Amino acid sequence: MAALRILVSLLVGLCAYYFYTRETFSEEMVRGKRVLVTGSSMGIGEQIAYEFARMGAHVMVTARSEKRLQEVVQKCLSLGSASARYVLADMHNLTAAQKLAEEARSQLGGLDYLVLNHAGGDVRFGPFEGDMESVTSSMTVNFLSYAQLTVAAMDMLRESQGGIVVVSSLSGRIPSPFSVPYAATKFALEGFYSSLRAELHLRKIPVDVTVAVLGYINTDTALKVVGGKITMQASPKETCAQEIVKGGVMRRREVVYPYWPLKPILLLKDWVPELLEWLLRRSYLVENIL
Ligand SMILES: NC(=O)c1ccc[n+]([C@@H]2O[C@H](COP(=O)([O-])OP(=O)(O)OC[C@H]3O[C@@H](n4cnc5c(N)ncnc54)[C@H](OP(=O)(O)O)[C@@H]3O)[C@@H](O)[C@H]2O)c1
Ligand SMILES: *[C@@H]1O[C@H](CO)[C@@H](O)[C@H](O)[C@H]1NC(C)=O
To answer: Is the CB of 182 within 6 Å of ligand 1?
Structure first.
């Protein structure tokens, strides 16, 4: 009985400590911050831009399609962004990635959040049959340009004690048949940014790294590419973007969305990978893929 009482008071104490010390998210934390969101002409990146805009940030969006970016900028302004602008850049081109960071410096005067979200290269969902062009272009667009942007923005982020938000995927944590080159780029991001986070910490450099591990999200691209080929349900891109922004601003190391479907998978993969792969095998409608 006494042991139980001690246990209960200990738990209550821990909960109180947790809620007391936990900083809560507020829009004030975002107002006036300078944010660059890549791949923001559509999909999750577009929604991330709107989240920052709503809370009064200075938003810079970028992608390749100018018309879409102009529309996104207009919507950011109407939602209440402190300012909104776009820069055209193709992330196949690492010089363009470097120039993009310089544009942020010259147009925003610095940067508080670098949100790396774009994905391209090769977005097919199908068997890997040795297409090396797909491997190299995916690596360039989804990984090398991220590293290049990070390098080019690091001085600004150090000055502002800013945050890097990296949009990754469950495919960066577990094997992903029919998206071999894509999964390779996401695993590369996980290695790069988790190592960088730890190193920045040891070197006492005050820049935080948040990695978002996403499941299946209902963007036009994802629905088109994997619709009818997997059995999973897509989660809403708007909520996804909210969770990413909140996690980034709160400087969390990780955002997992949707949380409950994904977390057990992440826990299983180290303990019982065979069981996990056996379970996941059922989510591929192979007859619709081959
Ligand atoms: N949707 C999902 O189910 C899902 C799941 C897990 C992870 N994710 C991750 O979430 C992120 C966003 O995905 P999404 O579904 O929102 O994708 P999306 O709707 O296809 O948007 C991709 C964005 O990247 C831009 N982009 C593509 N290639 C580019 C290039 N070469 N240079 C510059 N910009 C380029 C696109 O604009 P332009 O074509 O105009 O350049 C677009 O703005 C990606 O990192 C993806 O891996 C998505
Ligand atoms: C790459 O981007 C740079 C800077 O924007 C540009 O000068 C160069 O022409 C681009 N290269 C290619 C191959 O498009």
So the answer is: no
- For ligand 1, the distance from its centroid to the CA atom of residue 238, given in whole angstroms, is 15
Looking at residue 109, the DSSP 8-state letter turns out to be S
Give the active site residue among 182, 193, 257, 284.
182
Distance (angstroms) between ligand 2 centre and the Cα of 132 equals 23
CA of 232 to the centre of ligand 2 (A): 40
pLDDT bracket for residue 21 (50, 70, 90): low
- What is the Cα–Cα distance from 131 to 287, expressed in whole angstroms? 22
Predicted TM-score (pTM) above 0.85: yes
Q: Are 77 and 52 in contact (CB under 8 A)?
A: no
**Cα gap 45→83, rounded to integer Å:** 17
As a whole number of angstroms, the distance between CA 104 and CA 36 comes to 7
Q: How far apart are CA 166 and CA 235, in angstroms?
A: 19
Q: Is 197 in the pocket of ligand 1 (CB under 6 A)?
A: no
Q: pLDDT (tens digit, 9 = 90+) per residue, 111-162?
A: 999 999 999 988 889 999 999 999 999 999 999 999 999 999 999 999 999 9
Nearest CA to ligand 1 atom 28: 120
Domain ranges of the chain: 26-288
Q: Could you report the per-residue pLDDT of 218-275, keeping only the tens digit for each?
A: 999 999 999 999 999 999 999 999 999 999 999 999 999 999 999 999 999 999 999 9
Write down the CATH superfamily of domain 26-288: NAD(P)-binding Rossmann-like Domain (3.40.50.720)
In the chain, the amino acid numbered 192 is F
113 is annotated as an active-site residue = no
Q: Is 58 within 8 Å of 33 (Cβ atoms)?
A: yes
